[in-house]
Structures are given as structure tokens and as C-alpha cells.
Amino acid sequence: MPPTPPLFAFDNTYARDLKGFYVRWPAEPASKPVWALVNDALAEELGVDPARLRGAEGLAALSGNAEPAGSAPLAQAYAGHQFGGFSPRLGDGRALLLGEVIDRHGRRRDIALKGSGRTPFSRNGDGKCALGPALREYLIGEAMHALGIPSTRALAVVASGDMVRRERALPGAVLTRVAASHLRVGTFEFFAAHQGPQAVEQLANYTLLRHDPALAEHPQPYLALLQAVCARQAALVARWLGVGFIHGVMNTDNMTLSGETIDYGPCAFLEAYDPDTVFSSIDTHGRYAYGNQGEIAQWNLARFAETLLPLIDPEQARAVELATAVITAFPQQLAAEWLTVMRAKLGLASEQNPAKTTVDRENGQKSAALDRALAEDFLALLHARRLDFTLAFRALYDHATGQPAPLARLFAADDGEFAAWQQRWQARQPQRDAALLETMRRANPWLIARNHRVEEALAAASEHFDLEPCRQLLAALRAPCTENPEHAAYAEPAPAAVTANYRTFCGT
Predict the structure, then answer these.
(1) Which domain does 424 fall in, by range?
(2) Beta bridge partners of 35
(3) Cα 164 vs. chain centroid, distance in angstroms?
């Protein structure tokens, strides 16, 4: 019989091509590992047999109890600006990159453990992860993926059988995270601060080949890399805003160069619309509030640009000028992406043809201004009336499909401001064909990962190791735009008093 192939078909370019950018390190074993959740669909996408993954071999590999064949476990080095202050040495304090695989779509994906023990970057931490935060990352990552938002995802959560000490003793876990890569703005900050331009150039060349191979032959490849990362982040943040998502801890070590959402610690979703909403217990000044996320993304990208200056142009003044032009353009990029998102949510057709003449451009600008005002005015109505963001936009979709009741329940019959807005909205797009309605449906989820439902599921798992609430919530979150009576409870917002007192935590 031929030998059994390895569980994962690893091909580890980071370990092979970036020696000196990490520390090889083993995972700490778990005492009594048992499966909490396994993502069979993601396993198949990665070319891994789900049945084999769920066996003893997979459990040992994803609990840290055995080094999977072909892997090269390592802790990556990175720095980061945390709440605006620079921390020159962060790194994978409780994570290990096992290696990379090429998935069934030809995409290179990182496979990493989180909560697998102390590393040289752990500082005073124990390198562990509690079960609740691991499951939160699994749940929210799958919810974001189902919403079409680029995200890291969880392949599995293993309950380790060990307790971890936080405010109290909590059951421990190991999360297996899958990402396009774990390259961050903070990765570049670390090597810019500690090793200088030569190391940054090596890292940038690797990043180009990993995420933007077409740019490797660009006349100004490092400036083009900055532009590409800015474009990805503009699209990502616009999509966050479109579903009411608040990341909660947008430090530079939590901004990926791939444009994926990473780190679901103190994240949450808006209910009543208010751009100043903050749920994170550590964000005492509202730095990472819902409405600040675009501005913070630009700030983070400016830190990335600073690391690239010596590569962009040998003349510092010229490098600063070129990089500044890219960073200064970011708000306009974000505004364009946000308008695309909001047009989909409002069921508005956008221009189909590129502007070819001055008149075309002027008409396009007027149309964009009108549509932007329409979106902003609807948000102002929601804010003034403390209406639920998700329910209100879904009610617009219902109204567009001939179901006026949900919208009527939200707005009073004598609400003149809303009536005037509704007249403008209907006049802007009198007819919506099936394709436009489908776009609108997909842009306006029926349900999201409601904060109180997530907490209920995590509490059941952490306190009683009851995973059924997590499984049921996952089943609902994987079809967020389809109304299913069985999942109706997940679509309802929390009582206002619950939301008012809701706080999220980093889970570290």
C-alpha cells in the first residue's frame, strides 16, 4: 500500500523565504483535548478530509499535542501602534503559524494555532486562550464570511482540558485560524524599527509575491503595494460599515495587508444606529467607535507608508510626497466604496458606463452626490429615532418587494421627515428589476450575529460545555439573508437596556 499522505499538504514559504523574521517554536500540549467545533466545509476547501481531521490525528495536530507532518511551527515577529502608542515588540505571544497550504481554488492560506502556549513574544502572558474568546472568533468569522466580508476563519476549536486564569479560572482552548496571510502593518513596523530598510525590502518583496504578484514588475512596486493595501482596506472598512460592524481594536497589528478582518476580540455589531457607538471595555475614549473606523484605517495606513519610505524613493522628500498622495486619497477611496455599499443597500442602480466626456463625469458626480445624500439622510433618520440599523435596511428591502408592513412598524404614519425621504428614495429608483432586488437582498441581511445571542451561546459553552447553542447560532449565521422562521429569534435585537450596558473584552 502507498504511504498515507500528510493531513495537510504544507508548502511553507514564510518559514523558507523569511528566515530571521520569526522564531521556530513548538506548541505546548493540551492535557485532555476534545473537539468543541470543527468546520467541515472549510476543511474541504483546504483539501483536508473532514473525517480524517476529526480523528485522533487531527485532534492531536490542532490541540498542539503533535506536530503535523510537513509543518514548521513558528512565532512571527511584529510590532504595533496600540491605541496610538507604539509597542516595538509584540509578536505571536500565544500563536504559532503551522504552515501554508494551497486550497482547492489555488489560494495560499496560512494555518495557525491560537492559544497553544507561551512563545518568546509572550511577555507576561500565559500564551493560552479561553474557550469563550476562541468560540467568539469562530462564530464572528463565519458570520462575516457568510456576509461576503473578507475575513480570517476558524477551522476548529479544541477544548484543551486545562484552565486558564483571567479574572477567574476559565476553560482553555486552542483555535485553528485560517488566513490569506498573517502579514500585518505591525509586521512592517517591527522590521523598520529593529532591522532597517533592507529587512523591510525583503518583507515587501515577499508580500508582493504573496498578495500582489502582478505588481512585482511595476516601475514603482513599493508605492504600488501601498496603493493596493489602501484599496483593500477601503473596500473592507466600507463593508464593515455596511453591516454595522465595530472591530473594537483597530491597532496596526490588527490590520492585515491581505484586506481580511482579523482578531475578533472586542468586536460587536450596532443595533440602534449611532456612529459614536463603542462596546469595547478598553476603548475608554471612543478611538475605535463605529464612525471613526475609516479615519483610523487611514491613520494605520500612514504608519505602513512610513515603513516603506526608503523603498519608495531614495530621496526622502520625494518619497514622502508620493506616499502622502496615496494616504491623502484614502478618504475618497473609502467614500467611493461606501457609496457602492449604500447603493446596494438602498436598491439604487449605479452608473453602468465609464465617464467618457466632461458631461458624463459631471452627471456621474451629481448622481453620486444625490445618492450619498439619500444614504446619509436615511442614517440621520435612524439616529434621531434610535432605530435598529439592520432591521431598518431590511425593511427597505421588504418595501421594495411589495411588503410595506416592516417599514410601517418602524416609522410612524405621521412622520413627515421620513415620508419626504421615502418619496425621494422611490423617485430615485422607480423600478427595480430582479437582479437589483437580489443585490439589495444580499446587501441587507435579515439577521446578524446579535451580541446578546453570541453571549448566550458562549456562556453555555464556557459554563456547561454545551455547544448546541453555538451550533444553532452558526446554522443561522451561515444564511444571513434568507428569512427562516426557525431562526426568527436570532433576528430580533436585544432589549435596549441590555444593549446599553453591553461591553466586550479582548479575551487575552
Answers:
(1) 359-443
(2) 158
(3) 26
3-state secondary structure of 161: strand
Cell matching residue 26: 513548538
- Determine if residue 33 is left, alpha or beta; phi over 0 gives left, psi from -120 to 50 gives alpha, anything else beta: beta
Please indicate, yes or no, whether residues 370 and 489 belong to a single structural domain of this protein: no
pLDDT the model gives residue 356: 64
User: How many whole angstroms separate alpha carbon 433 and alpha carbon 310?
Assistant: 52
The whole-angstrom separation of Cα 208 and Cα 210 is: 5
**Strand residues in 196-250 grouped as ranges (E):** 245-246
* pTM, two decimal places: 0.97
List the catalytic residue out of 92, 162, 212, 253. 253
Residue 253 annotated in active site: yes
Residues 6+ apart with CB under 8 A from 492: 450
Which letter does DSSP use for residue 177 in this model?
E
Same domain as 197, residue 176 = no
> In angstroms, what CA-CA distances link 120 with 26, 61, 97, 123, 147?
11, 21, 14, 7, 37
Asked whether residue 175 falls in the same domain as residue 192, the answer is: no
- Residue 74 bridge partners (DSSP): 24, 97
Do 221 and 277 share a domain, yes or no? yes
> Is the CA virtual torsion 125, 71, 62, 40 positive or negative?
positive
Lookup: cell for 60? 492531536
Question: Of 395, 427, 443, at which residue does a domain stop?
Answer: 443
pLDDT of residue 245: 98
Q: Are residues 48 and 80 in the same domain?
A: yes
What is the C-alpha to C-alpha distance for residues 152 and 25, in angstroms, rounded to an integer?
22
The string of pLDDT tens digits covering residues 6-59 is 999 999 999 999 999 999 999 999 999 999 999 999 999 999 999 999 999 999
* pLDDT tens digits, 432-452: 999 999 999 999 999 999 999
